[in-house]
Specification:
It is built from 13 helices and no strands. It is mainly α and about 280 residues long. Among the domains are: about 25-110 and about 130-155, Serine Threonine Protein Phosphatase 5, Tetratricopeptide repeat (Alpha Horseshoe), CATH 1.25.40.10; about 225-284, Methane Monooxygenase Hydroxylase, Chain G, domain 1. Helix 1 packs antiparallel against helix 2 and helix 5 (about 95-110) packs antiparallel against helix 6 (about 130-145).
């Protein structure tokens, strides 16, 4: 075989495969460590939470839900178990159960101080950018959105944006606030949602949401949103934003093409994938 062909096609593929194997091995090692930590200290809610999170990161959402359910029995007033179980109910498309969990978590955090949530899959700077309150409102808003209950989704995302002042929080919540108002049909209010969006921001993680918000505001062209073609939650988020733009601007046939492109991908548990799947069922 020609060495140039080998270097161009085979070696990059081998690198990708080896990287995926290493990531899977690392995830499994962290799962075993979290499981052992919990078994050695079963009355520790933090260790039970991480046991559930590491289980979910392996894609075993059903067992993660069982772990969080055990946590709810042991610690019924701890909102984190409802927050994480609700997230995984979204993953398996049980939106009503997710809403119930997040609504319960929202009650439990009333009058409490917000706290940073540690990342299970850290960003490049290893700086957590999300909070307990923010994640509860964010995911509750998403669950409502997936049920096409846009009024309630808007209220939840508004509370999410109020829960933190990091630019990452602002752009992620604003992305959904804008899309929701477009779905409701209030263009003026949708544009008002973009007031906090600036060309430059101190983004640590949510770069794609920032790009989408800048596009909505007319600061950058749609061509600048082109994805690499890889199937990732990040690329699904961008594709969904583009599809939603078409949908809300009376180009539903174009929107359908992008929605279908997303659900033909492999990131079946990304929020963009789940939202595209939900829209196809509801509107086409």
């Amino acid at each position: 075989m020609n060495k140039n062909i080998l270097s161009i096609f085979i070696l990059p593929l081998l690198i990708i495969i080896l990287s995926a194997c290493q990531e899977q091995s690392s995830a499994e090692d962290k799962y075993e460590e979290a499981k052992k930590n919990y078994q050695n200290d079963p009355e520790n809610p933090d260790k039970l939470i991480w046991y559930g999170r590491r289980t979910a990161y392996l894609g075993d959402y059903e067992n993660a839900i069982k772990i969080y359910s055990d946590g709810i029995e042991k610690f019924p007033n701890n909102p984190r178990f409802f927050r994480h179980r609700g997230h995984r109910y979204i993953s398996i498309r049980k939106f009503d159960k997710a809403i119930k969990d997040f609504e319960k978590a929202a009650v439990l955090i009333q009058g409490t101080e917000n706290e940073i949530e540690q990342d299970g899959m850290p960003n490049a700077m290893n700086i957590p950018v999300s909070t307990l309150h923010g994640n509860i409102w964010y995911h509750l808003g998403l669950a409502y959105y997936l049920k096409h209950d846009y009024e309630k989704a808007f209220v939840a995302y508004d509370k999410c944006r109020e829960s933190g002042n990091l630019d990452d929080n602002i752009v992620s919540s604003t992305n959904w606030l804008y899309m929701i108002q477009r779905r409701i049909g209030d263009l003026d209010k949708a544009n008002q949602m973009l007031d906090p969006i600036k060309m430059e921001a101190e983004i640590i993680e949510n770069f794609d949401y920032h790009k989408l918000c800048k596009f909505y505001k007319g600061l950058i062209p749609i061509d600048s949103l082109a994805t690499t073609g890889e199937d990732t939650p990040s690329s699904d988020a961008v594709k969904y934003g583009i599809a939603n733009w078409y949908f809300n601007n009376r180009e539903k046939s174009k929107a359908k093409i992008v929605f279908e492109e997303i659900v033909q991908g492999t990131s079946k548990f990304s929020f963009g994938y789940i939202a595209a799947e939900s829209d196809l069922k509801e509107y086409y």
